Amino acid sequence: MKSSICSLVTLVAALIASTFPLRAQIPGVKMPPANDGKLRIIAFGAHPDDCELQVGGVGALWAKQGHHVLLVSVTNGDIGHWREAGGPLAVRRKKEVDDAHAILGVQGVVLDNHDGELEPTLENRRTLTRLIRLWNADLVLGPRTNDYHPDHRYTGVLVQDAAFMVTVPFFCPDVPAMKKNPVFMYYTDRFQKPAPSKPDIVISIDPVIEKKLDALAVMISQFAEGGANGNASLYPADAAGQAQRQRQVRENFSRRYQAIATRFAKELAAWHPGDAAAKVKHAEAFEICEYGGQPDKAELRRLFPFFP
């Protein structure tokens, strides 16, 4: 009986494999070489700018060390502007985020879901599961699920939903299930309910802060022009006015990442002992998700290899 069951399982697996041929590639992405000893990090954000805001600095640090970083926008951002919308805006935002990735030294994917309409559907769960498997991720990053924007919340839900399914062989059998469960972590945020963000690791991004600010600067539709809640007066037509606006945006972002270092000074000191923490000006912070692999401090040091 046991032999018959095993044979049946093998037959079913073969039928599934013939129906769903193995996808070894992510369209538009240069796949990392196998077993090169480098980390594989995949980060999810709702819109083309979310990953870059949350993990652009650490992404640049990983890339500088030769690790493989993929930033995924789960929607195409096609209503994220006060004046433009639809296909032309989606194309513009894709170009902006591609330029940002080139500055950071990372790769990116923009999924073709409409901005403002993301739902935690089965098909979207399958898409994220496939991407994590194809990237063979060591670390998966995403937003927490308590957020002002429904797309942000549902991106967080989809990442959580993929956390177990990446190891289940007959879910999305067209891409082999992972033998390991990656570590899943959240970006930090300022939302307090039902619980405030409590990062497990805080990283100095001072070595790459100018690079990160340069990357955010090329996403003009979102920041200099104000995105969905902007207006024509924010980014004037004259070159001098535009330069002034860009300086203002840059200073605002610099203060944002300084505020993270200040807010999480205690956690920062745990990772930057002695006088090192006091010297950190800009930081990004991340919290371990209770789903997925549960790293100890040694494993976190392996995943974030930026400490002496």
Detailed description of the structure:
With 308 residues, the chain is of the alpha/beta class. 44% of the residues lie in helices and 13% in strands. The protein has a domain at 39-203 and 284-303: LmbE-like (Rossmann fold, 3-Layer(aba) Sandwich). It has ten helices and seven strands. Strands 3-2-1-4-5-7-6 form a seven-stranded mixed β-sheet, with helices on both faces. Helix 4 packs across helix 5. The longest helix has 25 residues, at 239-263. Mean pLDDT is 93; it is low at 1-23.
In short:
With 308 residues, the chain is an alpha/beta fold. The protein has a domain at 39-203 and 284-303: LmbE-like (Rossmann fold). It has helices spanning 2-19, 50-64, 86-104, 122-135, 150-165, 209-217, 239-263, 265-271, 276-279, 297-303; strands at 40-45, 68-73, 107-110, 139-142, 183-187, 201-204, 283-292.
